[in-house]
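Hi all, long-time lurker, first post. I run a small reading group and we've been trying to get comfortable going from sequence to structure in the token notation. Rather than ask abstract questions, I figured I'd post a concrete chain and ask someone more experienced to write out its structure so we can walk through it together at our next meeting. Sequence below, copied exactly:
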Amino acid sequence: MKGTAGRKSNCGSLIGYDKLENNENTLIMADDMNYNLTEYKKINGNTLKIIACIVMVLDHATAGIIIPVVSEGLYPDSISFEEIEFVYDILRMIGRNSFPIFCFLLVEGFIHTSSRLRYALSLLVFGLISEPFYDAILNTKEDPFNPNFIELIKANAPYLNDHCNVFFTLLMGLLAIWAIEKIFSLRLPFEVKFMLSAASSSCFVFLAEKVHSDYHGFGVGLIIVFYVLRMYEPINLVTGYCLISLLGREYAALPCFILLYFYNKKRGRKLGPLKYLFYAFYPIHIYIIYLVRCLMYG
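-- Answer (accepted) --
Happy to help. Here is the structure in token form:
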């Protein structure tokens, strides 16, 4: 009996050793896989901004030109409405890959900026500057090909409060995660901090819905998800994609979430004051699209 027990004990030890060895091998394989993926993470923040800007131009040009052209019936008879609609849908789906990148980089900027206040004010100022141009290409229903910008804005005054540009969404997202940071710095029980953070976040989501900012509350929610889950990659990206996919055709933004996984957590070349060119690019490119639309059909 003792010999049998001894053999059982030895078998148990061997089985335990095999399990331990298998677990170690699994961990080694996981580490190797993670290392192999990390090797390909070479996309810096500036590269992501450029990609987002290019895709954004495509998206705004599609919406700013095709919609009024179709509405006014100015497309050639040789092209059917179904063909135009197909091209429009494809281009707008490609355009869905811009906004998540800007949200992701906003969180990165929030974490590394030397002044959150200056960051917020920059978003506010450029949001106010951009609004008339944004309205001119996306919110005009009367005389969309009028080359006189002032007349165009006056003619469409009743429709200009329908939506706000993306700078206001980014601003509300920034304020939301700033509030979360402040709340969690307080000496309060975790449950209380969690409830206060949820309440403040809900306020900014509601505000985005109320003012009809671009991407509405989903945009603010995406920024909050990227911030709260920033230490848990790729859970932050998967959760963010699931959230934004609930909004219209935003499911088409999958490629940019894959791209974000290969972000190397580096800003790229320091631009100094030139960083504001990325802010200015928004109203400038919209105004150029408006001019092109007027030249083509005005």
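A couple of things your group might point at:
The chain is about 75% helix and 0% strand.
The radius of gyration is 25 Å.
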